[in-house]
Amino acid sequence: MAETYGVGIGWRPEIAGFVAGLPGLRFAEVVAESVHAHGELPPGLGDLIERGVTVVPHGVRLSLGGAEPVDPQRVRHLAEVAERVRAPLVSEHIAFVRAGGVEAGHLLPLPRSREAVDAVVANVRRTQAELAVPLALEPIAALFDWPDDELSEADFLTEILDRTGAGLLLDVANVYANARNRGTDPLELLDELPLDRVAYVHVAGGAEHDGLYHDTHSHATPQPVLDLVGELCRRHRPPALMLERDGDYPPAAELRAELDAIAHAAGYPEVTAA
């Protein structure tokens, strides 16, 4: 994303009216699998596009980290959705969601091994071959690390990006969650990542349960994540930051306040202002 889009929000049917009413909105993200490749766009999404809001499809089911090749039909759908919404890029996760025909229904972490790097790179290249726009990759939040990890998180990610030329979708909430659950400093990981490759940024809330911090997307963004947004922007200013909210939607006033808090932390104009 060559331009600066400021702060955006994930478009969801449950908050479509709220998103449509944000006067300063220039950027939104839509779950790719929620958009049909043909026929009508979801109500309100087409209006955003016609209004000039940049919409980025975000895939959740490609399983780029799987040992099996990506499903060509799923890749084709992602490419068609990108064309439909006039997207400047698309994004997906460095994770796997299926194996042997069994769907996990969740994003699962990979062992940080060289074999896993090879599998991700092969699937990313297969996907890029069908896309007319660039691809950004998102590292996920994980509640555990595999015992046979060979690479650090930063080295694992950097090698994948270097070998594929993909961009980085950096989720600062994931950085915070992983560091908190490992008992490490999130700023150390931030300083090891290739921030010059950041295409855009996710911001989200979470909650602690049984001693582990879960990246829920259904809680308000906590202050430590907002602080991390500020630290990121001091190191490298990303073109866009996006609030992910996937459930337990609060009243509109609270959502507006959360968006403005992210904008304030990043030094961007408020998305709730015209």
Automatic annotation (TrEMBL):
<dbReference type="InterPro" id="IPR007801">
    <property type="entry name" value="MbnB/TglH/ChrH"/>
</dbReference>
<protein>
    <recommendedName>
        <fullName>DUF692 domain-containing protein</fullName>
    </recommendedName>
</protein>
<dbReference type="InterPro" id="IPR036237">
    <property type="entry name" value="Xyl_isomerase-like_sf"/>
</dbReference>
<dbReference type="Pfam" id="PF05114">
    <property type="entry name" value="MbnB_TglH_ChrH"/>
</dbReference>
